[in-house]
Amino acid sequence: MTNELAKWSSRIMQALSLWLVIAVLIMVCKNHLDALRNHNHGMPDNYVTAAERTKQLECLTRNIYHEAAGESFEGKVGVAQVTLNRVASGRFADSVCGVVYQKNVFYERVVCQFSWYCENKSRVRPINSPMWQESETVAKKVLLEGFRLPGLSNAMYYHADYVNPGWNKPRIEKIGRHIFYGER
After folding, report:
1. Which long-range contacts (CB under 8 A, 24 or more apart) does 127-136 make?
2. What's the fold here for domain 50-181?
3. Global pTM value
């Protein structure tokens, strides 16, 4: 009888141990799945969908086209780089499209970050297909491949050389018709 009792005790202990292991596994898996569901659908914080990346590329291409279509490759890169520098700075909108289409109000006047947007050129389809394609190529290199001009790593602003906005900002470099500036 003692032998029989020992066998049953052993079986009960094995069954309880198995159920305990299963319960712990279920709890760990459930907690892990809950954490994944609650954290950007399981994606890292900086995860960008293909649709969002395509939208960013379109916004950056449009900005390069309207701001620097007739400029050299470097001039186009400069415009793209200022756009991305603004996104990274935390002082402007937090997305490429947000920076491109950002408006501010100064003294009851709406001011766009990029003049073409306030001038309603955004409603006009690109006319010069080769310049649009070049702008798109530059946008891809800067946005997707990380291409940068080292001299413009701190550039936050620029203007055409035929205007004088009277900025009190440190001048960084002139590329083509644009003069680039940093922050004080």
Report:
1. 128/69, 131/65, 131/69, 131/70, 132/61, 132/65, 132/69, 134/69, 134/73, 134/76, 135/61, 135/62, 135/64, 135/65, 135/68, 135/69, 135/76, 136/57, 136/61
2. Arc Repressor Mutant, subunit A (1.10.10)
3. 0.73
